[in-house]
What does this fold into?
Amino acid sequence: MDNVSSKEFFYTGISLSNTPNNDSSVCIIDKNKKIVLLDKLYFTSDIELFLEQNPYIKKSKITVSIPHDNTLLEGKWRIHCKNYKMMGDTFEINRNDWTRRLSDRCFDIFLKLKNNGADISRFDVNLLRGAYGLSSNYLQRTSLDCKSLQSALKIKYGFDELPDNMLPASSLEAILGGMFMYDSALSNIKAKKIFEYKGLDVLNRV
It folds into this structure.
């Protein structure tokens, strides 16, 4: 990892969890569409240190998933309403911000990276899976869903180096993000801005 040539470029996908209690993952793909790094991160400080110190990052096109905000979901009606209802802060019922759908974890770290010149964007896992035809009939992030996604990445999209044993869901989502950055840079697949979140463009495959 110390012998990174200045002529090489890399494509980084980060699957970000909404809390440090769950694993986040990072995948870095080289210009030959080979995975050169696949690792898990937990704490915000780990993520920040990785982005500051890893030699591949400065030569990378980066995308980071937007995790869903799962806080304040004490009741069934809140769980269902959070996905469908739009309410402003002026509503008394929203005094604890329980209608917020997306987590803003680490957004300041990513924005700082952008302001320092990095090519960084965000992506929605579900939308990107749908755009690549990788949605399954199984409940998301279950063992069957992960097995389906891993098999598709290995067979359909050419990641032969993936092991036979099951990878964590976050690692598979990070590979998906890295593949998206690779395709948007080196193939005919185009990335389209669908909205902006916390100062960064959220992209999806056209």
Observations:
- The two ends are 33 Å apart (CA to CA).
- The CA atoms of residues 25 and 40 lie 4 Å apart.
